[in-house]
């Protein structure tokens, strides 16, 4: 969960991009890293295999600047999507403040998205969290591909709680910043509510 | 406590920094970091100027998390200390109060034995402080330390709109 340092006046939040293998989690971070100016972003770290598949995680720190006297940072992480990396995947959820669940919209990946979402709920529980207590959104990615499931069908299968959702084409950046803005705001709102409780 | 925020106040933070500074000085190490297990950098002391502390913190937490899982597979509760030896620089990691990782980076100006000895003492002192912090947060809930509120939220939202865009 968040780190609030009243002495150095810093707030750090952790946002995790979750989803099945090859759904576009790393592509989201790469696009954000490419587009943001240097004073906002830190160095992107990728622990990947020789074939550029995420092995452990990608990490990208973003700095919002000073908000009401607090230096506010978002740390973006991805998980490895491939099924057999489950042991590493669950570790990344430790201390999560918000989740972008990236969905591969292609019809032939439909079941894998559902499996990945269920896997996320299970892994959150293993870390002691409940999904309903954590801000999250859906990003329906790869909308440019011809064999996409309709958004309504994906919504019906995944978005039971009617959380915000965005259509995206992460390779060209469509929907990437919409998703980042939405989850960042939800995390901030959640944090403000928690501390004001 | 899994879902609990880590909240640091002036007095605790200055005590933590003092312990880290003493550790770096007494061991002649390059620097020491305190990292939350979620990967957030809590504090650093020593020469970190030309080093990417945020990446270092994130990777240290990842490293520690992976090793803890290895321990579980072996039926161990946890490896409380990790050591990575390089040709000129080495890393010593240890867990504090089950929640925070103390990372010490040192070179051949000191010895592993001295680092181990001083880290043990620092871990004891830091554990006392962090256990008190966790107890305080658990007992008082969040309302006692709320600086965030509507103004914070609205300023943050407008910064998010300004900065997070193509």
Question: Strand pairing plus helix content of chain B: what structural class?
Answer: alpha+beta
Cα shape of chain B: globular
Radius of gyration of chain A equals: 16 Å
Distance between the termini of chain A: 16 Å
In DSSP terms (H or I, runs of 4 or more residues), the helix count of chain A works out at 5
Helix content of chain A: 25-40%
Main pleated-sheet profile of chain A: 8 strands, mixed
Radius of gyration of chain B: 18 Å
Instruction: Report the helical percentage of chain B.
Output: 40-55%
* Series of H and E elements of chain B: EHEEHEEEHH
Largest beta-sheet characterization of chain B? 5 strands, antiparallel
Mean pLDDT of chain A: 95
Range of strand content of chain B: 15-25%
User: Tally of extended strands of chain A?
Assistant: 8
Question: Greatest chain-chain interface?
Answer: A-B, 58 and 52 residues
Q: Could you tell me the strand content of chain A as a percent range?
A: 25-35%
Shape of chain A: globular
* Arrangement of strands in the largest sheet of chain B: 3-2-6-5-4
Oligomer status: heterodimer
């Amino acid at each position: 969960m968040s780190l609030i340092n009243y002495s150095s006046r810093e707030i750090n939040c952790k946002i995790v991009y979750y989803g099945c293998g090859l759904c576009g989690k790393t592509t989201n971070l790469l696009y954000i890293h490419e587009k943001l100016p240097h004073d906002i972003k830190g160095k992107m770290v990728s622990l990947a295999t020789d074939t550029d598949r995420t092995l452990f995680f990608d990490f990208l720190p973003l700095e919002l600047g000073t908000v009401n006297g607090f230096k506010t940072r978002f740390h973006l992480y991805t998980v490895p999507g491939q099924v057999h990396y489950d042991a590493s995947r669950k570790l990344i959820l430790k201390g999560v403040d918000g989740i972008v669940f990236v969905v591969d919209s292609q019809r032939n990946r439909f079941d894998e998205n559902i499996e990945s979402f269920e896997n996320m709920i299970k892994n959150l529980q293993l870390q002691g969290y409940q999904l309903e207590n954590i801000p999250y959104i859906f990003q329906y990615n790869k909308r440019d591909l011809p064999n996409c499931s309709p958004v309504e069908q994906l919504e019906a299968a995944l978005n039971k709680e009617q959380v915000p959702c965005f259509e995206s084409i992460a390779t060209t950046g469509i929907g990437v910043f919409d998703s980042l803005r939405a989850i960042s705001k939800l995390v901030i709102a959640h944090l403000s509510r928690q501390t004001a409780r | 406590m899994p879902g609990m925020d880590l909240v640091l106040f002036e007095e605790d933070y200055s005590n933590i920094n003092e312990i880290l500074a003493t550790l770096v000085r007494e061991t002649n190490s390059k620097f020491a970091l305190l990292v939350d297990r979620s990967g957030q950098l809590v504090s650093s002391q020593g020469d970190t100027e030309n080093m990417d502390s945020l990446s270092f913190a994130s990777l240290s937490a990842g490293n520690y998390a992976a090793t803890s899982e290895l321990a579980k597979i072996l039926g161990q509760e946890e490896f409380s200390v990790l050591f990575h030896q390089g040709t000129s620089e080495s890393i010593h990691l240890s867990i504090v109060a089950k929640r925070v990782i103390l990372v010490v980076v040192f070179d051949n100006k000191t010895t592993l034995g001295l680092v181990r000895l001083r880290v043990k003492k620092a871990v004891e002192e830091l554990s006392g402080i962090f256990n008190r912090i966790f107890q305080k947060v658990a007992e008082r809930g969040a309302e006692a330390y709320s600086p965030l509120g509507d103004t914070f939220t609205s300023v943050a939202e407008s910064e998010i709109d300004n900065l997070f865009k193509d």
